[in-house]
Amino acid sequence: MNPERCPCGSGDTYDACCGRLHRGEAAAATPEQLMRARFSGFAVGEVDFLLRSWHPDTRPATLELDREQQWTRLEVLSSSGGLFDPRGEVDFRAHYRRGDERGVLEEHSRFVREDGTWLYLDGF
């Protein structure tokens, strides 16, 4: 097991947390869990997971990550949507570093559940 902590900030190891979702061994139970896994996906370069967890109506055909940009911390501000809800939302701040630049991406993300699977719909 990888002893490194998960980028999502849960406190668990990557392998025990978002790594399970990235490898397809587990599915997100809530929109917040999917948001955390997607943040970690950007942090560790899991493009296949990011595309797989994106709703087909809004998913880009391809996704290229900026290798110079490092995602350093996630703050979940609020979330809604549980085990049996069809929709959910997550407000978050994602902190990053690119060279000497530091920044924050703040987003309100929307999620939908189809066939029991949570998918990222869009964000603004």
TrEMBL record:
Instruction: Say which family it is in.
Output: Belongs to the UPF0225 family.
The residues covered by the YchJ-like middle NTF2-like domain are 30-123
Cited InterPro entries = NTF2-like_dom_sf, SEC_C_motif, YchJ-like, YchJ-like_M
User: Mind telling me which residue stretches traverse the membrane in this protein?
Assistant: none
Q: What is the lineage of its organism?
A: Bacteria, Bacillati, Actinomycetota, Actinomycetes, Motilibacterales
What this protein is called in its record is UPF0225 protein CLV35_3674
